[in-house]
């Protein structure tokens, strides 16, 4: 690992187009308001009807591509989604969560427009309560737990006052050490979708409603697992410091930043960001299958029909291209997830866009993988090895913003 001898000022030149994508994402959510109620109902139904797909039961990939095209997840109804198996089921469910980009540039107005909290270490999952039971599903589509809970309509109780068809959906991280579901977002509550609500409202609603149910109480006969809220702060200097240093009852795995105006968008979004360093996460750099940090950074990319190697972003970033004869000799086909090491040539970017990457082929990725790496993850891991974004940069950014606002106010008063 290269020594961290390259210090950056808090206001450094952007190394990516992450800010531009943030602005586009905010504009897109304002222009394209989807039917959030229908999506929430669809997700709740599918969580119960989709069979559990275990990664170790997946058949070995055939060297020949499947001639029948797979339906787009947007085109699937509940019946169609319930027929998905293996990699397709995992890929479908992975796209239903709102997944953060990795912070590779400090957002503008970080102190004004963003929340921050310490992310619990554990298994990211949906928790759906419906029809007198509760089910949690992992990002790969497999069932984590099926259990009674104090969530609305989450257990069969005679004194239940919830409507029979009522359902709720929570975005959680299951922390195995204390067997607790830490709730980081609320997607739907008693049949009312919150997908098209801002994160500011969703966090308010979550804090107002979850405690009323008794879901945060210790486990009982009708409530097998405990639910808990995470402390969310406004991302000023005090809030950022608290999220970074304050004691919490769970193991931290980095910091999560949510834009206050962001809706709950499925898939990867630049309006939610994750950041890590050695003081707030055990796993800053990716490890190999032996749990060791490899000498060279490794990336997982998806092979396309034309041989291009791309990330999993909505607009995939092309990292390179494989020769047709190599693809044929290796028995690869479109959709394969392949692992590469970044060589000494590294990554070459121009105006935040990747121009060239030095890639060395290592083989196919673990079959449990549901998707390739995102561009922001690759860039974050690359930055960690060469010039990491430090907590001092973040604190300097929010402090500078306050100073600038104070100076602007002083000028207005002088005038």
UniProtKB/TrEMBL annotation:
Q: Which residues form the Snurportin-1 m3G cap-binding domain?
A: 96-272
In what ranges is there compositional bias, type Polar residues?
A: 46-56
Q: Per its record, what are the GO molecular function terms?
A: RNA binding
One GO cellular component, as annotated: nucleus
Tell whether Cytoplasm is among the UniProt keywords.
Answer: yes
Sequence segments annotated as region (Disordered): 1-77
Q: Zinc-finger: is it a keyword of this entry?
A: no
Which GO annotations describe the biological process of this protein? snRNA import into nucleus
Q: Where is it localised?
A: Cytoplasm; Nucleus
Role, per record: Functions as an U snRNP-specific nuclear import adapter. Involved in the trimethylguanosine (m3G)-cap-dependent nuclear import of U snRNPs. Binds specifically to the terminal m3G-cap U snRNAs.
Protein's name according to its UniProt entry: Snurportin-1
- Protein source organism: Crotalaria pallida
């Amino acid at each position: 690992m290269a020594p961290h001898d390259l210090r950056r000022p808090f206001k450094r030149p952007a190394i990516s187009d992450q800010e531009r994508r943030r602005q586009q994402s905010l504009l897109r959510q304002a222009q394209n308001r989807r039917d959030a109620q229908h999506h929430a109902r669809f997700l709740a139904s599918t969580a119960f009807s989709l069979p559990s797909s275990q990664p170790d039961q997946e058949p070995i990939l055939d060297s020949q591509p499947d001639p029948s095209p797979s339906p787009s997840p947007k085109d699937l109804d509940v019946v169609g989604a319930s027929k998905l198996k293996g990699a397709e089921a995992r890929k479908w469910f992975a796209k239903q969560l709102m997944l953060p980009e990795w912070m590779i540039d400090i957002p503008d107005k970080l102190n004004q427009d963003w929340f921050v909290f310490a992310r619990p270490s554990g298994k990211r999952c949906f928790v759906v309560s419906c029809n007198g039971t509760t089910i949690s599903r992992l990002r790969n589509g497999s069932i984590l737990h099926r259990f009674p809970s104090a969530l609305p309509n989450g257990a069969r109780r005679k004194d239940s006052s919830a409507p029979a068809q009522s359902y709720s959906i929570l975005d959680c991280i299951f922390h195995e050490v204390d067997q607790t579901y830490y709730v980081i977002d609320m997607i739907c509550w008693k049949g009312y979708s919150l997908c098209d609500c801002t994160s500011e409202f969703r966090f308010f609603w979550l804090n107002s409603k979850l405690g009323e149910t008794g879901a945060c109480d210790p486990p009982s006969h009708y409530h097998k697992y405990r639910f808990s809220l995470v402390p969310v702060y406004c991302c000023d200097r005090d809030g950022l410091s608290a999220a970074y240093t304050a004691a919490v009852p769970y193991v931290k795995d980095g910091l999560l930043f949510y834009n206050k105006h962001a809706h709950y968008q499925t898939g990867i979004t630049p309006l939610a960001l994750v950041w890590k360093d050695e003081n707030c996460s055990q796993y800053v750099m990716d490890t190999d299958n032996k749990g060791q940090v490899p000498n060279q950074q490794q990336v997982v990319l998806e092979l396309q029909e034309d041989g291009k190697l791309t990330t999993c972003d909505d607009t995939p970033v092309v990292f390179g291209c494989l020769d047709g004869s190599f693809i044929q000799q290796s028995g690869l086909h479109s959709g394969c997830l392949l692992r590469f090491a970044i060589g000494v040539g590294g990554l070459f970017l121009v105006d935040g866009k990747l121009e060239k990457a030095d890639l060395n082929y290592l083989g196919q990725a673990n079959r449990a993988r549901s998707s390739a790496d995102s561009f922001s993850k690759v860039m974050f891991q690359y930055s960690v090895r060469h010039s990491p974004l430090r907590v001092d940069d973040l604190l300097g950014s929010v402090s500078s913003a306050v100073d600038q606002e104070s100076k602007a106010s002083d000028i207005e008063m002088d005038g």
